[in-house]
Amino acid sequence: MTPVSARPTLATVAARAGVSPSTASLAFSGSPRVAPPTRERVLTAAAELGYAGPDPIAASLRRGRSGVIGAFVGERLLYAFRDPVAIQLLDGITEVLGAHDVGLLLLAGDTGRPSVAQIARIPLDAAIFATCGLEDDPALDLLLARGVPVVAVEGPVVDGVVLVDVDDRAGTADLARHLHGLGHRRVEIVAMPLRLDGRRGPVDAARRARAHYRDVRHRLEGVEEVFGPVPAFETASNAVDEGVHAGRVLLDVPPARRPTAVLAQSDVLAAGVLQAAAQLGLDVPGDVSVAGFDGADLHWLGATRLTTVVQPTDEKGRRAAQAAMDLVDGTRPADTVLPVALRIGTTTGPPAR
Amino acid sequence: MTPVSARPTLATVAARAGVSPSTASLAFSGSPRVAPPTRERVLTAAAELGYAGPDPIAASLRRGRSGVIGAFVGERLLYAFRDPVAIQLLDGITEVLGAHDVGLLLLAGDTGRPSVAQIARIPLDAAIFATCGLEDDPALDLLLARGVPVVAVEGPVVDGVVLVDVDDRAGTADLARHLHGLGHRRVEIVAMPLRLDGRRGPVDAARRARAHYRDVRHRLEGVEEVFGPVPAFETASNAVDEGVHAGRVLLDVPPARRPTAVLAQSDVLAAGVLQAAAQLGLDVPGDVSVAGFDGADLHWLGATRLTTVVQPTDEKGRRAAQAAMDLVDGTRPADTVLPVALRIGTTTGPPAR
DNA sequence: AGCTCCCATCGAATCGATTCGATACGCGGG
DNA sequence: CCCGCGTATCGAATCGATTCGATGGGAGCT
User: What is the tens place of the pLDDT at every residue in B175-186?
Assistant: First the structure.
């Protein structure tokens, strides 16, 4: 009669243990309101029936939360995770979420399929925009319409979204001052993508006006705070080979037109520029100084210590996750701006001549 | 009277549109059984009320599935994602899941906190063991007890778990034959961790008997198929610096005792061995041949073309995801073994003398 | 011995949507 | 003119657990 395949429910277990479903529920949740012998009886009955605990879906419905928090990363995973900063950020996020037994769901901006359909179908308690700050993202609209709390790391800046930010502008300005102090006057920037349309090349005013990403904008502004207008070369993605490409474009020119310092907007791009310099037989920092941003752990740089602006990436992740947890709990944390610190390495020095 | 904050439900919308909740549900699911004008009326009412669509949690309960599939990666994210193969695998997985509007939840074997508590709380339709094949993982037991379908990539091999495998052994044997054919007789192996206990050093029989990972075992066996017993040096994690360390241990010895070829069990480790060789002033493949496994995209290798065994990592991910989807749909796909291909690069050649 | 208080357990409502079988209505054919 | 059939909509059961307020019984105190 009773089909073997039918998975037992809490009610089944309760019946076998001779208690009401409510008591069985209390027993499983470890409430002190249930007497130890009773709990024992329930647990035994469960074991006998092969019941592994309350169904998470049903519990989610009743509790009103699913225990899942979504993290949006731009592009597809394959590219997003080439970026060590993205990984470290996610690591910081999981650290906090894991401590709350909350899971992290990855939402990749898979160009092919908008993740909007996923959001409509997947139960999310909150969402973190980890590496993609688009104010006009349709996914963002949907989340807000649904009343799903949203945390944004470095943007988008929208009403009702908690912002976890880093002082990109001040950090880059510090770095720029360092280079200015060394005597550099002809510097150029290797910029991360202003939008994800695969474009690369010099950044003009029109392009800049259509920039998507706050951090990129702020890192441009920080340099200009010190040097005034500075030529910037945009890369198609934040990857080493893009840095190499940009580096060759900027450095493979007659020495008179060559910048004495290149500020890359990320350590990954800086690593590429270093490679380009090496390929062109240029000495760093003798012929050209190179600086990055992030303070990432680039094991493949070897002994070279890159001059960079260190941002607390893992702390950023932890803050974002904590903010998300707070929002789920109904409190609204304040926006945060984390400080950064200039770290001078061996890749910057006084300009030649 | 009506609190503004109360989010409208399907019933509210239905009432406003003058239809029953069932019809409203049909309208949202896009069923052809509802007349277009009616659907229109429902959608309008929803828009007016700020209703963004059916609650995913409630829908999950009724449907019996949550639209979330969990992927287990060993260690914590920060280390797991240093491995380009893991990332590519995950990318393949998301490609398929995304096409089905299913989300990928990351479960990291955060040593501190077992993910068991997460599994108990998070609604999962299926789970994929992506990079950690432990037969005795308590998480695995819990999933099976819950009746959650499980797919294992390269293990664990357990009843009721669908296996997506790669022919590690045959691939490594091919590679070994290549080296044997070149004349190598004194080869050594740089092995990936046999278990995740941070140990590194020579592998002895006792250690080997306690090996956790099938792929590691198979890659050892493939070499032995050709060369017989071969010394192996175990690394603490699959990372470049571990490869460097192992490389120095194996290569920084008197030439007479130095292996003429080093087989690393992954491209990442091989990259480390190449670095070690360079540091020691050894020519590759003049003084020592180096080979890897994976066919990974290691941008930081530069022009060096590593001899390796190419495995279809993205296809492995897609297969695993497809298997998971099939299981969710109630069909049980067969186990798979994917083929690999030897790719000869510039890092192997005949031994000196 | 009687009264009170407290602790363990229970009942019942609720979370919000989905889905199947039933119903009502309108139209065409005999 | 009536019957039958098809289509659009509706009712009600169901998914499985949680939780709050209520109840009953036993222990402690006077």
Answer: 999 999 999 999
